[in-house]
Amino acid sequence: FIPARQTELQCSVVDLSASGASVICENPNGREIAAVLYIEGLGRFEAVTVRYVKGTLGLRFICSERKRCKLQAAMAP
Q1: pTM here?
Q2: How far is it, in rounded angstroms, from Cα 32 to Cα 45?
Q3: 8 A C-beta contact, residue 2 and residue 33
Q4: Residue 52: Cβ within 10 Å count
Q5: Structural contact between residues 56 and 50, judged by C-beta atoms closer than 8 angstroms
Q6: I need a labelling partner for 54 at 20 to 30 A (CA). Which of 4, 11, 25, 28 fits?
């Protein structure tokens, strides 16, 4: 979701860490854009776009250390 444009983009998460994610999405809108990534089963993550390389958009999460730790625990095997 891109709040400034009130636009939702369909995307697929291809890489996920406690600090960010790489996603493949339709029509990425550039760098340094605020975004909200919804991940089923994990929740909502405010982020900023940081790169777009070979069809993959990089997001850096903007969240508290507590939320980052919670995500990391949820990803642990």
Answers
A1: 0.84
A2: 16
A3: yes
A4: 14
A5: no
A6: 4
Residue 69: enclosing H or E segment and its boundaries? helix 65-75
| Per-residue buried b or exposed e for 21-36, using 16+ beta carbons within 10 Å of the residue's own CB | bbbebeebeeeebebe
What is the distance between the alpha carbons of residues 59 and 77, in angstroms, rounded to a whole number?
A: 23
Type of residue numbered 33: I
pLDDT for the residue 20:
93
pLDDT tens digit string along 23-71? 998 766 666 789 999 988 888 999 999 988 888 899 999 988 898 888 8
Q: What are the phi and psi torsion angles at 68 (to 5°)?
A: -60, -45
